[in-house]
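Deliverable D4.2, example record:
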Amino acid sequence: MRGEPMPGTRRARGAIVAMCAGLALTVVATIVSYTDRTTTHLLADHIRAGYPGYDTSRVDAAVGTYLVLSSVVGALGVLGWLGTAWAVRAGTRWARPMATALFVLGTVIGLTGLLAKDTSGATGLPPALGWSGVAPCLAGAVAVVLLWRRGCRE
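Output generated by the structure prediction step:
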């Protein structure tokens, strides 16, 4: 259902700009995972340190699993950013609740990647990769605040 253009268009535009920044940060966070695999090997070294009994093939398999997970989360994040920006621009009634729900979901996923401990007792991800997954949430917070501000209500 399409509503009237969202009043407070300045704030709505600001929210869309924040969503574009979040989209870019999501793409960067996803690419960082692949870049790490070919350059710094932070994840592989992190897994090796947590599981010294793992041979190279098991470490590579764990890194591969993370890359698949990162790709799926990144692709869903891109869809979420694009869909929410479209909903705000179109002035739909459900744009703000959708943005809020996706912000909460993204934040939970990002913080899980940053803080969750695996069976070795260490965090599942090295800090650099964990923080890259949280970065898009900052843009999401800005977008949600701008959308719920008084001048941006329908």
